[in-house]
Design brief:
Helix content is about 20%, strand content about 25%. It has about 260 residues and is an alpha+beta fold. Strand 9 and strand 10 form a beta hairpin. InterPro entries: Uma2.
Length: about 260
């Protein structure tokens, strides 16, 4: 604010935000990707469990990209920016020309903008809420303003707090959850919500998928248990039918009727 004795106070004009020039360029082969270890053993389990349920449900198609700790790229004002969300879902990507693993993904250039990104909170500050726009930009700013990803999920595995933000008029807005602590993803035709229990060596809060009817999409171990239970129920029904037939045959014989002649 500028002041001059004897003159009215006039506010200093606000500096306009720097215009962002965003281009979509392939990641050069000689650019190394960060090779940092995950922050804890729970993060890969959470990400893997989300994908596992979708795969068993037949949701995943060849044109989709679902990955964890995978680099999303954009060039902002000439600087290459790479962020690796804990989980990302892209509805349609261009196929690779050769049989190879993807090192990274550049939206628009290589396919659609991701539909969903997720970040799992930990004791280490990871910038999940950072709106820093200068290089390197914060995660929130990168997902919201640069990539413009429709859905941003922030999940705290320590207490089960789930925050789901949806892009509206260029800004993320917090979405309400159902009484069951779930949120409907219309483009996926699935609910995402919080579930508490044990999988592998981890006991705690998990992110899970539910279908439109409210049925939980099972993990492999749960599906196997369900199939075993169904098989046992079928065995018990067959055994009960066999016993009923034996009782009927015994009754017929007691009446002088040979059941084999019927």
């Amino acid at each position: 604010m500028v002041t001059t004795p004897g003159l009215p106070i006039t506010p200093t004009p606000a500096r306009p935000a720097e215009t962002l020039v965003i281009t979509w360029e392939p990641l050069p082969d000689d650019v190394p990707l960060e090779d940092e270890p995950v922050e804890n053993t729970g993060q890969p389990l959470l990400a893997g469990a989300l994908r596992e349920a979708l795969e068993l449900a037949g949701f995943i198609q060849p044109e989709m990209l679902i990955a964890s700790n995978f680099g999303l790229c954009a060039t902002v004002n000439g600087d290459l920016v790479i962020k690796a969300p804990d989980w990302v879902y892209v509805q349609a990507v261009q196929p690779l020309g050769v049989a190879a693993d993807r090192r990274s993904y550049t939206p628009t250039l290589q396919g659609a903008v991701p539909l969903v990104v997720m970040e799992f909170l930990s004791h280490k500050e990871g910038g999940e809420y950072s709106v820093k726009r200068t290089f390197p930009p914060g995660k929130w700013f990168f997902y919201e303003q640069i990539l413009q990803i429709p859905v941003y999920v922030i999940f705290d595995p320590s207490d089960g707090l789930l925050e789901i933000y949806q892009l509206a008029a260029g800004r993320y807005e917090l979405q309400p959850l159902t009484p069951e602590n779930r949120c409907w993803f219309a483009d996926m035709r699935l609910f995402l919500g919080v579930w508490q229990g044990t999988k592998e060596e981890r006991t705690g809060y998990w992110l899970r998928w539910w279908d439109e009817a409210g049925n939980l999409l099972p993990w492999a171990v749960e599906q196997i248990a369900q199939e075993r239970q169904q098989a046992e129920q079928e065995r018990q029904r067959a055994e009960q039918e066999h016993q009923r037939a034996e009782r009927l045959a015994e009754y017929l014989r007691s009446q002088g009727v040979d059941p084999n002649s019927l």
